[in-house]
Design brief:
single chain; alpha/beta; 9-stranded mixed β-sheet; 6-stranded parallel β-sheet; 20% strand; binds 6-O-phosphono-beta-D-glucopyranose
Length: 511
């Protein structure tokens, strides 16, 4: 929201008037880890900057590392300076924010650290008048979630005078069985309405805008169905490799890391029926309906409906990069997928026989996340084949990142004496329209949790239904069907992914 004060823009009016939550404390488990340092602390700093943190707010960073409060603050300060979305950071705000951070060394396997946490929270609650409200954030490796929830229960921190909410990061389980078990354990300590499962894609402004685009307008919905839509493509491409996350990624792969959550979330939003209201129950009920209507891919059809790939060495954004098997903490004969593509159908009245193609991969040529809805060609070529030979079918692209916006592609006459029709774009760009920097997804989600609004968090049945669909594919992939394909880093994935669409007479949109 930096530019708002400088450039008057009627569309940006009132944008800073978000609600702030009731006084509360926050505990981040894994406060010295990558997610906290790169995302959570910078997000909290930006909330402080926009005065969106609740009164009395104080953060306890909890982790296994032996750090003093001063060392933790110094580390936080460096991370915020390096990763804040607003640059340069405002020193005064940062100093004030750092004073509201404290640190506690906690071994998640032992009750003793949680007893100290309970005492510290009691002191802070009295000093800060936060009424017992606490958000616990598990920014730790997923195997620690059950232990943390159980320890919180053991020392009585799962209940209190105010609210007690717990945020858990994805991945939520690694298959249906483990997700079910995790839900069971978490619910033995916290009720469902206090459980906030994060899928940070849902906090992205542009993802939320999918619903606004579809349901706040009357011109798109009449054509948003199998009568008019030829197919839908969902792309989540990244130039990054696995970075320092080799050991996590070896157990995950692209299908579990992105498709099971982010990509299927995008699918639900683009395919769902209008919810009766924009509230947690109505929105999530409709999303679950879509997931239940996704046709399970039969085992024998998996080789013809899915593609799994792994990057080899190559060049990305001008830099020579190693292959996946050469990355740190990756097995030399690893079969892990760093690329996944699939074709699926949503079996309902609206989408019958309309293919949805999903692809995601690491070490692709550029970062782009988008949903492209491609429409059918006109039934009759009034202008003749020659005049329209360069005309592509109409499409609407919802660009999630970067260059957030929406673009409509349609045919227009080229201004020449004859009749030649070519495709042109009509673009809406967030930044140039509203002249504001959208908040980071984590900013939005942290505030929503403190406000007690779970609309943008995933419900247990959503997570489990998504795993139900993914598990069958994972099983087949595990048994080598289809075989793993390779692709050079910096290309758009294996040839087999192009064939997936080519066999249907279609091509991927190359953004
Ligand atoms: C995370 C995945 O959930 O999303 C990462 O674990 C991926 O592998 C990241 O890089 C992508 O998020 P974003 O917001 O950068 O598109």
């Amino acid at each position: 929201m930096t530019k708002q004060a400088e450039i008057p823009n009627p569309l940006a009016e009132g944008l800073s008037e978000y609600r702030t939550a009731d006084p509360a404390l926050m505990v981040i488990f894994g406060a010295t880890g990558d997610l906290s340092q790169r995302k959570l602390l910078p997000a909290l700093y930006n909330l402080a900057r926009n005065r969106l943190l609740p009164a009395g707010f104080m953060l306890i960073g909890a982790a296994i590392d032996d750090l003093t409060e001063e060392q933790f603050r110094k580390k936080a300060s460096e991370s915020i300076k390096a990763h804040s979305r607003t640059q340069p950071v405002d020193e005064e705000t940062l100093d004030a924010f750092l004073k509201d951070l404290t640190y506690l060394q906690v071994d998640f396997g032992r009750t003793e650290g949680f007893e100290r946490l309970r005492d510290r929270l009691a002191e802070l609650e009295a000093a800060r008048h936060t009424g017992g409200n606490v958000v616990f954030y598990c920014a730790t490796p997923p195997p620690t979630y059950p232990a943390i929830a159980q320890q919180l229960k053991a020392v009585g921190l799962n209940k209190g005078r105010g609210y007690r909410r717990i945020i858990v990061e994805k991945p939520f389980g690694s298959d249906l069985h483990s997700a079910h078990e995790l839900n069971r354990v978490l619910r033995s300590a916290f009720p469902e309405d206090s459980l906030y499962r994060i899928d940070h894609y849902l906090g992205k402004e542009t993802v939320q805008n999918i619903l606004a685009f579809r349901f706040a307008n009357s011109i798109f919905e009449p054509v948003w169905n199998n009568q008019h839509v030829d197919h839908v493509q969902i792309t989540a491409a990244e130039p990054l490799g696995v970075e320092t996350r080799g050991s996590y990624y070896e157990r995950s792969g692209a299908l579990r890391d992105i498709v099971q959550n982010h990509a299927l979330q995008l699918l639900t939003l683009v395919a769902m029926e209008p919810p009766v209201a924009f509230d947690a129950t109505s929105v999530r009920d409709e999303k679950v309906k879509v997931l239940k209507q996704v046709r399970p891919i039969e085992t024998k059809a998996i080789p013809s409906h899915t593609v799994r790939g792994q990057y080899e060495e190559g060049w990305v954004l001008g830099e020579q990069v190693p292959g996946y098997r050469q990355e740190k903490n990756v097995a030399a004969n690893s079969e892990t997928d760093t690329y996944a593509a699939l074709k699926l159908y949503v079996d309902n009245w609206r989408w019958a026989d309309t293919p949805f193609y999903i692809r995601t991969g690491k070490r692709l040529p550029k970062q782009v996340t988008e949903i492209r809805v491609q429409f059918k060609r006109p039934p009759h070529l009034t202008f003749g084949r020659e005049a329209t030979k360069e005309l592509e079918p109409n499409s609407i692209t919802l660009r999630i990142q970067p260059e957030e916006g929406i673009s409509l592609r349609f045919g227009a006459k080229v201004p020449t004496a004859g009749v030649v029709i070519r495709s042109v774009n009509m673009d809406f760009l967030y930044t140039s329209t509203f002249l504001v920097d959208a908040p980071d997804a984590y900013e939005r989600l942290l505030v929503d949790c403190m406000l007690g609004d779970p609309t943008l968090f995933t419900r247990s049945d959503e997570v489990e239904t998504a795993w139900h669909f993914i598990d069958v594919i994972e099983e087949s992939w595990h048994s080598g069907q289809p075989p793993l394909q390779t692709y050079a880093a910096g290309t758009w994935g294996p040839l087999a992914a192009d064939m997936l669409l080519a066999l249907d007479g279609r091509v991927w949109h190359h953004p």
